[in-house]
Structure formats: structure tokens, C-alpha cells
Write a structure and sequence with these properties.
CATH superfamily of the largest domain: 4'-phosphopantetheinyl transferase domain
Number of strands: 12
Number of domains: 2
Largest sheet: 4 strands, mixed
Radius of gyration: 20 Å
Bound molecules: coenzyme A, magnesium ion
Shape: globular
Order of helices and strands: EHHHEEEEHEHHHEEEEEEH
Strand content: 25-35%
Number of helices: 8
Structural class: alpha+beta
Length: 302
């Protein structure tokens, strides 16, 4: 018997101006190759979003595995999807974890699943306990600033959505703002789905067709919509569950759960300080020098 626990965390970076100490504490715990990767970002905001994503993964794995925060190691698969790199002595853990991160604009979101194999049934693991479970998450800002008209933009994007999806997006009573929100909701669902698979955008998005839950409206702070149905190549996908959330009037998020039916909950909003710990490395000259340079990066406005 496997018990799944789902974690949904969101961080709103909208008003965060990192102090030298906060940045040093964050950089000190992530892996050196990630410090190098982050330097490629031109804007400080993109740097921080990606950094906070790394910290969310670390908090999740550390909390659920007992491995010390600064000792958790991640690797990326061939397509860039991060996974927990367990040390030999950690692989005997009864916990199996799956997680994914997304960031856009002022939000960084995280979704994770912890599967606990009950100890007393350990020697007799059931089929369901060996079924691969997984999660993908995506957050989108509900805005369009592409310069062209929305109709022209939709025309260009025509082959990214199925006919049924376009029918919903362009429903006659949908004004432009409704159409944009409907478009972003579908985009988010598709991204969450492909992110669970880890395949990026290599699959034909028109063959993935979502029917969104129309029983309720999406509301900030409300429970997510969970009645979404996915069909792939016209076949209903029974082992998938989707949640649609509205984090803010301008930000929607979707979570795709595979082989895991979650107890429905909202995102928990974490603060930056929930993700930081004091370490000796955070006081090192090398880290502090890197941080001073990072803090010179340009800011965006949301
Ligand atoms: N699968 C799942 N997760 C991945 C991943 C992969 N192959 N590669 C990276 N990630 C994780 C990482 O944690 C990454 O954070 P990082 O960049 O700070 O390391 C995070 O997901 C990025 O997710 P998100 O912020 O949602 O980025 P995105 O939406 O720009 O890209 C991709 C997500 C890379 C997985 C991929 O789906 C992509 O190329 N998307 C482009 C957009 C598109 O055309 N979407 C069409 C769907 S309608
Ligand atoms: Mg995304």
C-alpha cells in the first residue's frame, strides 16, 4: 500500500529585493554548477526565479528524506529535467519523491509527491506501489504583449491546440480577456503535462486535448478546479489528474499528477526566509564576491 502526500508551494518574488546575506545563504547551498548556470541570466529577476526554484526542490527533498539541506544533490536528465541524485546510503529510504518547478514573472511554483511505502508491507510491495507516479507544474502570466492583435496571435498558434480547445477558448460570450485567460489555462495544462513527461515540446500538442472544468470559475485563493479531462489521440487518459489554480488575478498555474490522485488543496505561499539556512559557506569571500556581482544585474518591472 502506498500513501501519496502532495506538496504545493508558491513564492511571490514581486516585492523581494535580496540582501547580500540572503543571496549568500541561497548561493551557499546550491551546487557549484548551478551557480555557474545562473550567471547566464541577464536580469536579476530571472536569476532569482531560477535560484528560488532550486531552493524549493532542496527544501522538499530535505524535508521528506531527512538528508541535510546543504547535502541534497540534484542532477538533470538528458532533456534538462532535474531529479534527486540519491547517494547509495539514501536509496534504501522508504520515501519515493517526484517534483517539478516552474517560474514566470513574479511567481515560482513547486509541486511534489511523496510516496511512503508502508514499512509493514515492505516485503510484499503491491503492484500499485511500483507504478511510476509523477508530477509536472506550470505557471503562466495572463497577459499578451506580442504586438499583434490577439486574433492574429491565435492564428499563429493554431496548430498548438486541438479543435475542441479552440472552440472553448473562442466561445461567443468570451471577450478578449476571457479568451486570453482560456488560452493561458490550456497552455499551462499542456506544459504541466509535458513537464511531467519531461519531453519538453517535442510532442504534437494538437493531439493532447484538454476539456477544462466549467462547473466553477477559477478564483484567487479558492480551491483549484479538478474536473479537467485529458484525451490523447482521442483516448481518455484515466491515470492523470489535473488541478488548475489562480494564484493572482494575472497568474494561473496547473499541476499534472500521474498515477496519484491528490487530496485537493491550494498552494501554500512560502517566504524567501523559509528557504534559507545559515551556513559557514555563506560567509566565504568567494560567495560574497559572487553575490555582489549578481546584485549589479539589471531588474525588470512586472
Ligand atoms: N521537463 C520538465 N521540467 C523541466 C525540464 C523538462 N525537460 N527541463 C527543465 N525543467 C524544470 C527545471 O526546474 C526548470 O527550471 P530552471 O530553468 O530554473 O532549471 C523548470 O522546469 C522550467 O519550467 P518553466 O519555468 O515552466 O519553463 P518553461 O515553461 O519555459 O519551459 C520546458 C519548460 C523547458 C520543460 C519545456 O516545456 C519548454 O521548452 N517549453 C517551451 C514553451 C512551449 O513551447 N510550450 C508549449 C506547451 S503549450
Ligand atoms: Mg512554463
Amino acid at each position: 500500500m502506498v500513501k501519496h502526500k502532495c506538496t504545493r508551494w508558491a513564492v511571490d518574488l514581486g516585492s523581494w529585493s535580496p540582501t547580500l546575506q540572503q543571496l549568500a545563504q541561497a548561493l551557499a547551498v546550491i551546487q557549484p554548477e548551478e551557480r555557474v548556470r545562473l550567471l547566464k541570466f541577464h536580469f536579476l529577476d530571472d536569476y532569482l526565479s531560477s535560484l528560488v526554484g532550486r531552493l524549493l526542490m532542496r527544501k522538499f527533498v530535505s524535508t521528506n528524506s531527512g538528508v541535510k539541506y546543504e547535502d541534497v544533490k540534484f542532477a538533470r536528465d538528458i532533456r534538462g529535467k532535474p531529479y534527486w541524485l540519491q547517494a547509495e546510503h539514501e536509496t534504501h529510504s522508504q520515501q519515493q519523491l517526484a517534483f517539478n518547478v516552474s517560474h514566470q514573472g513574479r511567481f515560482v511554483v513547486f509541486a511534489g509527491i511523496t510516496a511512503q511505502v508502508a514499512v509493514e508491507e515492505d516485503e510484499n510491495i503491491t503492484a500499485s506501489s511500483t507504478t511510476r507516479f509523477g508530477v509536472g507544474v506550470d505557471v503562466m502570466k495572463i497577459e499578451y504583449s506580442g504586438g499583434r492583435s490577439l486574433a492574429e496571435f491565435f492564428r499563429i498558434m493554431r496548430n498548438k491546440f486541438a479543435e475542441n480547445e479552440w472552440r472553448y477558448i473562442k466561445r461567443s460570450h468570451h471577450n478578449e480577456m476571457d479568451q486570453l485567460q482560456a488560452f493561458m489555462r490550456h497552455w499551462c495544462l499542456k506544459e504541466a503535462y509535458v513537464k511531467e513527461l519531461g519531453v519538453g515540446v517535442t510532442i504534437d500538442l494538437q493531439k493532447i486535448c484538454f476539456t477544462v472544468d466549467v462547473t466553477r470559475a477559477l478564483a484567487v485563493g479558492g480551491l483549484p478546479l479538478t474536473g479537467t479531462i485529458l484525451r490523447c489521440n482521442d483516448m481518455p487518459m484515466h491515470d492523470w489528474y489535473f488541478e488548475e489554480h489562480l494564484l493572482h488575478p494575472k497568474y494561473c498555474a496547473a499541476i499534472a499528477f500521474k498515477n496519484c490522485k491528490p487530496i485537493v488543496k491550494s498552494f501554500e505561499l512560502l517566504s524567501i526566509d523559509d528557504l534559507l539556512i545559515e551556513t559557514e559557506d555563506a560567509k566565504s569571500v568567494a560567495i560574497l564576491d559572487t553575490c555582489r556581482n549578481v546584485l549589479k544585474k539589471q531588474r525588470k518591472t512586472w
